[in-house]
Amino acid sequence: MKSTFFVISIICACVVRCGGCSCGQDNGPRRFCGYDIVFRGRAVSEYVDRQGPADDPFYLLISDRVYTVIVDQAIVMPDSFRGDKSIKIRTPVSGSVCGTTFPLFSSRVFFASEYDGQVHTGLCDPNEPWDGLSHRDKAEITEHLSERC
């Protein structure tokens, strides 16, 4: 048991130390492309969906933080989510495996992918505060996203 914990600890340390999450910068016109779901909204609650036993720190790395997000404006929305007033978005708890956090009740644009019937996003996705986007980026996202992608 101790040797298993030691091996897992070494692997986790390598992921953190070696940059387990590495994002390439894309500032081109297609930087907002490739997402199944794009919308403007506000996270209103969060919880950790912890996987495995509570006393094992390894399982926290593979757990997800789940946000309930109110949809203010659907931009790209698959039929299975069209009309939903809120969406649950999952992101890894740890930043070393590309997890991110969102302040509650702050308007932002969310870029996410759907797989396994769930919505996922991460540190490398361009989830930005709505007020922090330039006028050009806001227009790109709300008016031209479907044309360019």
TrEMBL record:
Subcellular location field: Secreted
Top-level taxon of the source organism: Eukaryota
GO biological process: negative regulation of membrane protein ectodomain proteolysis
Protein name per UniProt: NTR domain-containing protein
KW Plastid (keyword) present: no
Source organism phylogeny: Eukaryota, Metazoa, Spiralia, Lophotrochozoa, Mollusca
Gene3D superfamilies: 2.40.50.120
One GO CC term on file: extracellular space
Cleavable signal peptide: 1-20
